[in-house]
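Progress against Task 2.4 (sequence-to-structure conversion) is shown through the following example record, which the project officer requested during the mid-term review.
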Amino acid sequence: MIDRNAILETNEMIEKDHFDVRTITMGVSLFDCITGDGEKTAEKVYAKITEAAKNLVSVGCEIESEYGIPIVNKRISITPASLLGRTESDFLLIADALDRAAAACGVNFIGGYTALVHKGITASEHAFLETIPEALSKTERLCSSVNVATTRAGINMDAVKRMGGIIKQTAELTKGNNAIGCAKLVVFANAVEDNPFMAGAFNGVGEGDRVISVGVSGPGAVRSALTKCGADADFGELALCIKKTAFKITRVGQLVAREAAKRLDANLGIIDLSLAPTPAVGDSVAHILEEMGLESVGAHGSTAALALLNDAVKKGGLMAGMYVGGLSGAFIPVSEDAGMIDAVNRGALTLEKLEAMTSVCSVGLDMIAVPGDTPEETLCGIIADECAIGTINNKTTAVRIIPVPGKGVGESVAFGGLLGTAPIMAVNKFSPAVFVNRGGRVPAPLISNRN
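Structure tokens generated for the chain above:
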């Protein structure tokens, strides 16, 4: 039961601390749309999505109105698109159908233009990968992800090498819009099948026909709670404070997910209790870490502070949700977090420090803008490093990096909306080209032998 005090606490978090449900994401299985003919498959894809998700936005708005809970985004994820076709023309037809379906349903993003190539790449997956830059340049709402490593399989360095080129091509094809295509493309290690957040959402092969998953967010609420703890609180007290707040946040997400699944006649999926920041002042993960006592995020101690935050969020949220999944922790996207942007601009936060912090955060190097002339091999090296962190630590890691043509260190690029503004960050000038070009697969770590 939710008592009067709990309702008042939730209202205060909404009114003062930017608390919201970040997304209701409907996962739709498209396996029954496969025909062997690209045009027919695309037609069936469009028809199924528009039928399954036709009421997604209206139901989200109903719940928002009835309960007074802000629901920022309503989104769709689909079966990995690389499994739906065979040729480049097939996949481009499917990409167009996905984008049109998203527009028809009124959602801002549709995820699942995805390939899982962590151990090998089939002929159809080769064809799919070739289409990613063009697909992202010719669509507005489509998001793409590629999984190139797992703890069980190791790191497919051939796939890593290919993704460096794909990122560069996507940047070039969308350079007229600040390389926005790269903001909709993420490279994963240990990608999960039930992630409701973009750009990495897809409806995994183990998921049902229609599934509702909800991503909640409340960095401002956590920071506000820590402020009330006072400067004399020790780390145990800070952790307890975060756990209590995460419990309250997740409880709201559980309510929204249950109502949305019932009204949309879909399976109840998971609650992703990640703290996802926005560019708005007061909605920053970086400011939570600074509230713990860091002069600036990026200072020594930032990784420890983030580890405490991530662990406490998980512990508190797990007690409030029936099914907790997705990524669940704390995101540290640079362009989407006002505190991260400030830290980069003041010289406190570097790419190397961010990499260290990704060993304990929810995902990885997220929404990082780098100079447009960054070599392809350097991008591959950055991806490989994140994959190593993910596979060795048996966690999800990712890279969403944007080499912005014509931009250099000290400049910035504006993407607008939740994607925010990214300062161009410096990258290491020494080349990993010989290492990257060895190819093959980095063997799975010892931790993978768990049977």
